[in-house]
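Exercise 7b. Backbone tokens:
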């Protein structure tokens, strides 16, 4: 796929993401399932997955498309939230596989202070985020703890990539941060509707930016994996 086509698809994905962040909440005022909201929410990440597929980066595409499936399941109904989290979990394993195949060995990466500091910050945040954001009596607390561990591992394994792939690392960190917004919005409702709206919008756009950065930063990594 040409660079111009990739740029056009990125722009379309961004427009859909911004539109969903701005107006998507109005699609959830009736009873589930939320069919239009599901399609709208998943559309921007599906486009990123298609970019990866057209570039023949199958692991990257799988990670993105399972992310889109996770978005769809989260939007479909409150009853499918756990299935959405599982879809995201599978997507993270595809990302981890891609990063471990193309990055340097973990021991080598941890000899560089910048990578050590970044990994430590993610590790600390992954340990603290569930404690701060997920109530102790939440029935999904244990599954969400497991999910946070895998999410943190995905971000840390991105730090083994060459520095030229800094966009992937930034995207993985943004993805990690966005899930903090998800937990915050889910378990700590803001009584001010304006603040709640902007908090939700910010979390969604951080998530999209993370996925877009992973997508475009990791294009071509599959070729390095094929050579190893």
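Sequence design result:
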């Amino acid at each position: 796929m040409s660079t111009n086509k990739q740029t056009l698809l990125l722009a379309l994905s961004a427009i859909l993401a911004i539109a969903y962040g701005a107006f998507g909440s109005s699609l959830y005022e009736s009873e589930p399932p939320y069919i239009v909201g599901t399609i709208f929410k998943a559309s921007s990440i599906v486009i990123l997955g298609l970019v990866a597929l057209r570039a023949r980066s199958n692991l990257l595409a799988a990670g993105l498309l399972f992310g889109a499936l996770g978005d769809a399941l989260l939007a479909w109904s409150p009853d499918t939230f756990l299935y959405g989290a599982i879809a995201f979990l599978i997507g993270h394993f595809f990302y981890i596989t891609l990063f471990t195949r193309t990055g340097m060995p973990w021991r080598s990466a941890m000899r560089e202070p910048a990578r050590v500091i970044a990994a430590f910050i993610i590790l600390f945040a992954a340990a603290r985020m569930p404690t701060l954001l997920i109530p102790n009596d939440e029935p999904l607390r244990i599954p969400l703890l497991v999910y946070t561990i895998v999410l943190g591992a995905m971000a840390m394994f991105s730090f083994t990539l060459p520095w030229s792939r800094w966009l992937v690392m930034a995207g993985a960190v943004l993805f990690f941060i966005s899930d903090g917004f998800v937990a915050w919005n889910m378990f700590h409702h803001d009584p001010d509707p304006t603040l709640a709206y902007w908090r939700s919008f910010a979390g969604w756009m951080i998530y999209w930016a993370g996925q877009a950065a992973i997508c475009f930063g990791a294009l071509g990594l599959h070729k390095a994996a094929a050579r190893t």
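Instructor comment: The two ends are 24 Å apart (CA to CA). The chain has a mean pLDDT of 94.
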